[in-house]
Design brief:
With about 170 residues, this protein is mainly α. The chain has 7 helices and no strands.
């Protein structure tokens, strides 16, 4: 794909901002030994309420969910920032955000125990960031600006050197 300079700039900035948000959220959870997703899952409402609450009440599953949250957020954030495995990182981020959205959807009649910084109806920050990651997945930039670009450049140089020596 080819992009205009502005398109590339805005797509890379979007990738970096979401990467930073994911990385920061993961690292904050990693550094806080008291953090757990239990409260978030226990306060879940709507059609997946039973699933999330059952997961939160099982210590083995809860431990796995916490691990996936902390390391998923951290690794996805790093990959987006570095411009490496753009599509895989975007899809992983979409999966996490979908779970957050389904646990606490902003729907009429659902009164979440979690504090929010605004009033939402159907569309919230998780849904917006989820669709922004779909844009990043559909319009990748890491092959232009990122480690993927450097790897391709290095591979190209290595191929050129091997063909020159023959």
């Amino acid at each position: 794909m080819t992009y205009t300079k502005n398109q590339l700039t805005y797509l890379v900035i979007l990738r970096l901002l979401i990467g930073w948000h994911f990385l920061y959220e993961g690292v904050v959870k990693l550094w806080n030994p008291e953090w757990s997703s239990k409260g978030f899952m226990m306060s879940s409402e709507w059609i997946f309420e039973d699933l999330f609450q059952t997961m939160a009440q099982n210590e083995g599953i809860l431990s796995m969910v916490d691990f996936i949250n902390v390391w998923g957020l951290t690794i996805i954030g790093l990959l987006l920032i570095l411009g490496l495995f753009n599509k895989a990182a975007s899809i992983g981020g979409v999966a996490l955000l979908a779970m957050y959205y389904l646990a606490h959807p902003p729907l009429v009649g659902i009164v979440s125990a979690l504090p929010t910084e605004g009033s939402y109806l159907i569309v919230n920050k998780n849904l917006i960031e989820l669709f922004a990651l779909l844009v990043i997945c559909a319009f990748p930039t890491s092959h232009i600006i990122g480690i993927e670009h450097l790897i391709a450049k290095f591979r190209g140089a290595a191929i050129d050197e091997s063909t020159d020596s023959k």
